[in-house]
Structure formats: C-alpha cells, structure tokens
Amino acid sequence: MSERLAPLPSSAYAWHYDTAPQWNDCDIYGHVNNVAYLSYFDTAMNMALLEHGALDLSADAEGPIGLVVQNGAQYFREITFPARLSIGVRVEVIGRSSLSWGFGLFDRTGGACAARGHVVHVYVSRATRRPISLTPELRACADALFRDVATDNKEPLS
Fold first, then answer.
1. What angle do CA 38, 43, 49 make, to 5 degrees?
2. What domains can be seen in the chain, in order of their start residue?
3. Which of 49, 105, 117, 137 is surrounded by the fewest CB atoms within 10 Å?
C-alpha cells in the first residue's frame, strides 16, 4: 500500500467498535503511539469476528485461524489521552482463503478520521497451518462487513 489514502467518513465502515486509549498507550510526546492504533484495529477486527459468529475462542475450537500476512496504517491527526474512540471496520476484499480488512479510527468528540488501517488475514488449518477455504461463518461475516472500495470518497467526510 504505497498510495496516500484519504480519510473516510464513519459511514464508509460496516461495523463500529467503541474504545478509549489507555494511559500507557501514550508516548513521550503526549499522543497515542503508532503501535497502539494497530492494537485498536486488531481488537476491533476480532470483536467483529466474534459478534458475527466467525471466531471461536474456546479451548476445543477446531475452525481455522487467521494469520496476519500484512498490516499497516496511515495517520491524519493525532489522538491524545483522554479520548473516546470509534473504530470503523469493513472487509474490502474477499478471497478464497483470505480477507482484506479496512479500518478507520475516529475521535468521537470531534468526529474526524484520525487514521486508516488495513490487515490481510489468511485463514489456515489449526493443525497444518496451510491455507483453507473460508468457512460459511467467515464468508457470512465477510459478506455482512463488505464495503466496495470503489465507492470511497464519493460521500462527504462526517
């Protein structure tokens, strides 16, 4: 992902997860550290998977696991503690054994998009660690969260 992305409105994301930065998320400069954004995206993605019945965290789970093969973020404005955040989540590409996730981090006080992120998950067998086709649960989750990136920047920022 080398092109500079533009901030998107909250409505560009299919699902949202509310959170807040922790005191220890901040760096010496007084703003939320870059690595914390990736943590927020990871938590929001897994909460979306849980809510859509596509992630089983039980000790005897047998379904596939998602391995991160790519991630990153682009930043538009800083976030400082305290803040109230909303993480927008969407699926941007549905592959045979992979999902490309997109995220927007929003300051709920000001509403502006502070960052965009992405994660590519390849789903693999727990036993063999080899890619497998998306399960019906993962496919249903992906369909529910899918947003066509071709429509990005066609609506005003909120």
1. 125
2. 14-40+61-150 (3.10.129.10)
3. 137
